[in-house]
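Section 5.1 Outputs to date
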Amino acid sequence: MNRIVLFLATNLAVIVVLSIVLNILMAVFGIDFGSYQGLLIFAALFGFGGAFISLAISKWMAKRSTGARVIEQPRNEAERWLLDTVSAQARKAGIKMPEVAVYDSPEPNAFATGPSKNNSLVAVSTGLLRSMNKDEVEAVLAHEVSHVANGDMVTLTLIQGVVNTFVIFLARVVAGLINNALRGNQGGSRTGGGGFAYFGLVILFEILFGMLAQVIVFYFSRQREYRADAGAARLVGPQKMIAALRRLQQGRESQLDDRMMAFGIKGKLSRSELMMTHPPIEKRIDALQQGRFK
């Protein structure tokens, strides 16, 4: 319930902030959001704005939604080892030391998030620490550090912003064309005006176009996983990463929230690879064995 409330409150706050910005743009620049140019500005504002606000608060959201505890002063040898390992990997990868956290979950998983390479968080689950040996945990940490070093959080945010923009824009254009045709309104607003029928069509096309857009986002997410695996292989050696992946095969699918799942070490299963944020583990192992994605 706390996760649901947090999710709804965050999205409401994003909408409020963007609506205020939208009203300022209308008042200051006199933008006509009934034109295609104005609609594109509206779509970009909400498409990129929502994505970048989510990125800016990603560490805060991750800590709140998982209950992750940042290790500031190690309480035991295991926590000291985690800090030392991530520190060494961060130096080798050429990034600032991320925050390191542990969250309570029986599933073996880990994730990285944050608004930039030098302002990031790497978190591991208690289930991962219990089920893996040190070599395997080291490889998982290297995978997450590689996500940070590759700038994957920003890259995926940009991709999400682009597809969000086109989903919002195209849904309203197509809905407007259909609404005008049904009403015989040839001289009305080019973007379709208003009314319940128009907004109903907008919602329908946003869902349809959004599903198609996710295929694009998921494709890039899978490519990032291959590159993060390769980065981990460079940091700790391919055999450790392969061993960690084989260990993950024995666990259940990811229980992380959708916003963080793309940055976890393991994703959810799907009947079609097109709808997976992570490639099948066997394909990831094969890529490492064949030396691809170096």
